[in-house]
Specification:
With 150 residues, this protein is α+β, with helices and mostly antiparallel strands. It has two domains: 1-31; 35-139, Immunoglobulin-like (Sandwich). It is built from one helix and ten strands; from the N terminus they run αββββββββββ. The chain has one helix at residues 5-30; strands spanning 35-43, 49-57, 63-71, 75-76, 82-83, 85-89, 99-105, 111-114, 121-128, 134-139. The strands form three sheets. Strands 6-1-9-10 form a four-stranded mixed beta sheet, with no helix packed on it. A four-stranded antiparallel beta sheet has the order 3-2-7-8, with no helix packed on it. A two-stranded antiparallel sheet has the order 4-5. The longest helix is centred in the first third of the chain and has 26 residues, at 5-30.
């Protein structure tokens, strides 16, 4: 039996579509993100600041991130609101659980905070407020790939 061009193309399409569907299913299963997505640093103050930050796993776990970040001053818009300068670190291990965040700003006193339990895709955000205080928070408004959620 001779194979027609149309039959060959139809067979190729069916095999290709089935293969792609399998790839999508595999990708979805492999891309389930459970844990820390990244660490963000933001400066809302109108002065530049340097943060020395160490983030470790749990209360006595191993070091995850150690960075010295110099953040330029925030920009004050015409409406008085501030646009922060930001940096982030995304080469962090994807792990659930709690994290210990230690920081000092401009070589000041070292402070520590233990985060809540991270489950799912979360971000640790270290911010310098317009009052020159450092806050640490968790943010869950990112998708599995570390992009801002819509």
């Amino acid at each position: 039996m001779a194979v027609t061009r149309r039959g060959l193309l139809r067979g190729t399409f069916v095999v290709g579509a089935t293969g792609l569907a399998g790839c999508d299913a595999q990708r979805d299963a492999d891309d389930t993100f459970e844990g820390l997505a990244r660490v963000e640093f933001a400066n809302y103050d109108t002065a530049a600041h340097t943060l020395d930050v160490t983030i470790s796993k749990g209360s006595d776990g191993g070091e995850v991130v150690e960075r010295t970040v110099t953040l330029a001053p925030a920009t004050v818009r015409t409406d008085g609101e501030r646009t922060p300068t930001e940096e982030w670190v995304s080469d962090v291990p994807e792990q659930t659980g709690t994290y210990r965040v230690k920081w000092s700003m401009d070589d000041g006193a070292r402070e520590t905070r233990l985060t809540e339990d991270i489950q799912g895709c979360m971000v640790i955000r270290v911010e310098i407020t317009k009052d020159r205080k450092v806050t640490v928070s968790l943010d869950g408004t990112v998708d599995c790939y570390g992009q801002e959620a819509g």
